[in-house]
Design a protein that fits this description.
Elements: H1 4-18, H2 25-42, H3 46-52, H4 54-70, E1 77-79, E2 82-84, H5 91-95, H6 103-127
Helix pairs in contact: 3-6
Length: about 130
């Protein structure tokens, strides 16, 4: 019951975002993340939360390593309306590494990765692993 309000709000924002009417940016992402993390702590679902955020942790580690060790930032290039990267310094650049994809394809791939790990977290919680 604690998540019904935020879920309805996120669905409305997602619908408007897909239609190009609204963009929540970092502030919206941080608010959603804080809400989910608070819910996980209150309901004692911390291990499930950890599994579900693994793609974000992986992305952050790639970015930090590239900035701190290689001293270069991740960069995606537009070539004919498609995204391509010549290095692997973030999740997006890893997906587009020497592979030309549309922005929609990249979003679908990232969403599928997040959905997979979220489903894995739900299964782990059901099985109590």
């Amino acid at each position: 019951m604690l998540m019904v309000g935020p879920l309805i709000s996120w669905l409305i924002i997602a619908f408007l975002n897909v239609r190009g009417k609204i963009f929540v940016g970092n502030t919206g992402s941080f608010a959603i993340g804080l809400t989910v993390a608070s819910f996980a702590v209150i309901t004692d679902l911390k291990s499930s939360l950890l599994v579900s955020i693994l793609p974000y942790v992986f992305n952050s580690v790639l970015i930090l390593l590239s900035v701190l060790i290689v001293r270069k930032k991740a960069n995606v290039l537009f070539q004919g309306g498609r995204l391509v990267s010549e290095h692997r310094r973030s999740l997006i650049t890893l997906i587009t590494y020497k592979r030309s994809l549309t922005e929609r394809q990249v979003v679908i791939i990232v969403s599928a990765i997040v959905a997979f790990f979220t489903a894995l977290a739900v299964v782990a919680q059901i099985l109590r692993i």
